[in-house]
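Researcher: I'd like a candidate sequence for this fold, 247 residues long. If you have to choose between options at a position, lean toward the conservative one.
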């Protein structure tokens, strides 16, 4: 769930929307070098310019203290920006898109709010088909690169309450609460089956468990080592692990 600086969000949003710096400059009514300066992080747009950029890219303009808070235009990823903009252009509500794509409404909400930045490829394909609009190859590559942990693999987000999104195979997985705080770390040779075992537990519900993410790791020894390391790093944040509740 890494936050990306505003200038990089701007560059990616412009690129994913097929705009040159000159194109965007005309829309915002500023010189092209100004766009370049924003994207290089040398200067920042003022409030009026930010609002206009938010309108152009379909960013939400909720008042936040800084650009990196979840839900602000600085923290919604490329995918969330594209999805919100495209869905609005198609005049679809979240629930209408959910029905059409067979992707749950909470997953769509979480993508658009920036809580889910890299869902499974099958989820993206369902949404693209429902919207009749595909992400560019460059945008997909940006999402993949941003979410890849060198030496381990791709960090993939999922909705733990939707059985269709549960990952199969072995790996490390993590649950986040409604405030995006990590609350549980687990590992299994079959993540899907392991998560299904959590379902009857009293804690396996929103807002305690809101979203999830995983990295596929087939090696059993490595999985256990990474799980142990993450629990130590998270300390008291991994409340479900630390409280020794039935898991």
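Model: Candidate sequence:
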């Amino acid at each position: 769930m890494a936050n990306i600086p505003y200038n990089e969000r701007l560059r990616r949003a412009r690129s994913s929307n097929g705009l040159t710096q000159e194109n965007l400059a005309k829309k915002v009514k500023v010189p092209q070098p100004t766009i370049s300066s924003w994207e290089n992080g040398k200067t920042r747009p003022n409030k009026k310019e930010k609002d206009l950029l938010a309108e152009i890219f379909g960013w939400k303009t909720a008042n936040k203290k800084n650009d990196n808070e979840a839900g602000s235009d600085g923290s919604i990823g490329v995918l969330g920006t594209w999805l919100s903009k495209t869905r609005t252009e198609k005049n679809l509500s979240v629930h209408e898109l959910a029905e059409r794509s067979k992707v749950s409404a909470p997953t769509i909400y979480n993508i658009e709010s920036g809580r889910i930045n890299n869902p499974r490829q099958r989820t993206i394909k369902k949404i693209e088909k429902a919207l009749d609009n595909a992400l560019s190859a460059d945008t997909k590559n940006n999402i993949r690169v941003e979410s890849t942990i060198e030496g381990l693999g791709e960090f993939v987000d999922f909705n733990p309450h939707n059985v269709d999104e549960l990952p199969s195979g072995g790996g490390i997985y993590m649950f986040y609460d409604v405030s995006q705080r990590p609350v549980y770390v687990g590992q299994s040779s079959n993540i899907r089956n392991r998560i299904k075992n959590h379902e009857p537990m009293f804690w396996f519900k929103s807002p305690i468990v809101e979203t999830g993410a995983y990295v596929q790791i087939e090696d059993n020894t490595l999985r256990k080592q990474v799980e142990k390391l993450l629990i130590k790093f998270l300390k008291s944040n991994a409340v479900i692990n630390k409280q020794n509740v039935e898991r």
